[in-house]
Write a structure and sequence with these properties.
- By secondary structure, the protein is of the alpha/beta class.
- The chain contains 9 helices and 5 strands.
- The chain has helices spanning about 10-15, 65-80, 90-95, 95-115, 150, 155-175, 185, 190-200, 210-215, and strands at about 20-30, 40-45, 80-85, 120-125, 140-145.
- α2 (about 65-80) crosses α6 and α3 (about 90-95) packs across α4 (about 95-115).
- GO terms for molecular function: RNA-DNA hybrid ribonuclease activity.
Length: about 220
């Protein structure tokens, strides 16, 4: 198997040549988890003067937890601005996961705007082929999608690492508050131990109950 190539700034530079003043790389984390929020990370770069991104930066899924912890502050220092927006498990149950990706993304954009990023003059670069962000916005933005942008585009790889570390830390904190589900290790995803804990202890307010019902995993009251 050939090694995975490191991300580059080729695509972001091309967007700059096409007129983008800023590029906002975007990636989501926690879409498939059974517990905890879904998170959308955003990292802003100037595509004409992007600087040098951290050595070893990659899609968060290709990095160990220890490497992500090292790279997250380096990625945040490299970019002009970064933000992570969240949508809760209750919102996922009520609105659906795609709508919550948009909601979390809208919240991240709000953070960037409050910090001084001109989002209206930026091009938003989404990982994947589906624009889930536009339906959540009242003001249209310039949004482009790219399959495997988290692997190939440094701004999106940075967003994936920043979002992953942010959400992982939240899940570790929740594990301290609500122990028994192994969230410090499984981060809310559906490990065997997590399913066993749900059967034994029942679901919490941090679980996506509609998802658990589909798995027929919510413990019935005695």
């Amino acid at each position: 198997m050939s090694p995975v190539a490191d991300p580059t700034l080729r695509h972001e530079r091309a967007l700059g040549r096409a007129g983008a003043e800023l590029v906002i790389g975007v990636d989501e984390v926690g879409r498939g988890a059974l517990a905890g929020p879904v998170a959308v990370g955003m990292c802003v770069i100037d595509p004409r003067r992007p600087g040098v991104f951290p050595v070893g930066l990659r899609d968060s899924k290709l990095l160990s937890e220890a490497r992500r912890e090292v790279l997250a502050p380096l990625a945040s220092a490299w970019v002009r601005a970064s933000a992570v927006g969240l949508a809760s498990a209750e919102e996922v149950d009520r609105l659906g996961i795609i709508a919550c990706l948009g909601l979390a993304g809208k919240r991240a954009l709000g953070q960037l705007h409050a910090a001084g990023t001109d989002v209206l003059r930026s091009v938003v670069l989404l990982d994947g082929s589906h624009d889930w962000l536009s339906p959540s916005l009242t003001t249209p933005l310039s949004i482009t999608t790219r399959v495997k942008a988290d692997r190939d585009c440094a701004s999106v790889a940075a967003a994936s690492v920043v979002a992953k570390v942010h959400r992982d830390r939240l899940m570790i904190e929740l594990d301290n508050v609500t122990p028994g589900y192994g969230w410090a290790s499984n981060k809310g995803y559906g490990s065997s131990a997590h399913f066993d804990a749900i059967e034994l202890l029942g679901a919490t307010d941090h679980h996506r109950r509609t998802w658990l019902k589909s798995e027929r995993m919510i413990a019935q009251p005695s």
